[in-house]
Specification:
- It contains nine helices and ten strands.
- The chain is an alpha/beta fold and 259 residues long.
- The protein folds into two domains: 6-57, no CATH class; 62-254, 3-Layer(aba) Sandwich (Rossmann fold).
- The strands form two sheets. A seven-stranded mixed β-sheet has the order 6-5-4-7-8-10-9, sandwiched between helices. Strands 1-2-3 form a three-stranded antiparallel β-sheet.
- The protein binds S-adenosylmethionine.
- S-adenosylmethionine binds at residues 40, 63, 90-92, 95-96, 111-114, 117, 136-138, 159-161, 166-168, 171.
Amino acid sequence: MNKRHRVQFPKNELSGSNQDESYFYLHGTSKKRKIKFHEYDEIYQIPGLYEQIFYDRLKCISPNKVTSILESSIKQSQDNFTELRVLDLGAGNGMMGEELKKHGISRLIGVDIIPEAYEALIRDRPGIYDAYYIEDFCKLSKGKKEEIESWQCDCMVTVAALGFGDIPTKAFVNAFNIITNEGWVAFNIKDTFLDKSDETGFSTLIRELIFSKYLDIYHIERYRHRLSVDGQPLHYFAVAARKKADIPPKFMESQGIAI
Ligand SMILES: C[S@@+](CC[C@H](N)C(=O)[O-])C[C@H]1O[C@@H](n2cnc3c(N)ncnc32)[C@H](O)[C@@H]1O
């Protein structure tokens, strides 16, 4: 059991409007430190802090939600959840991996861009992943790509990691193209990202993909991902789909994604 940290959220934060700028204060023995939500390197280094902020205080339910829609989608097919070989993009300290393992899967491969994520994983959840790569998925070398491909993943998941300056569109497409055809894809994304008025990279990519020949949608659900620092619900869509084909360079160019 990790020790509880003394955490304080700023007062009068506008509800959810500046989600990517959110921060909190961590009270230490002598002084308090301001830490932004996106400073994962700082957060992961302190045992239990990530879980306390996002899961205990802000009630994030996304690993459970995305796993359950993936499971119900697979039940609509001839496939078995327990035979899945999963690539977890933006795996962090293993919250999604832990959830998937509860339901039983065959292989679990994690990827994260920062070493602190891996260090937190082996400190707090050792043995969950069969392999874990510290890589920027936008800049995979040929050798590393082949090594990850050799795991023959037939599912990719990415939870709480798309948009807001986290995983870029190119990393998502690279992971999508690494899994096998007919593989499963499950992720969550903020509800505004499916809104036509939102023209950020992820919004247009996801909207185009949903209606494309590269993906068959099995399940889309709007749900409360977590609370904002001022207690307002932040709604996301959880999406589960089946990959039909690799996303070709032509499609990426049309989305303005550098190849
Ligand atoms: C909010 S955390 C989510 C972690 C975990 N999926 C969860 O649900 O708790 C987002 C993670 O995405 C990782 N990330 C950001 N950009 C990335 C990239 N280009 N490639 C791989 N991981 C990336 C971050 O380091 C961070 O660990």
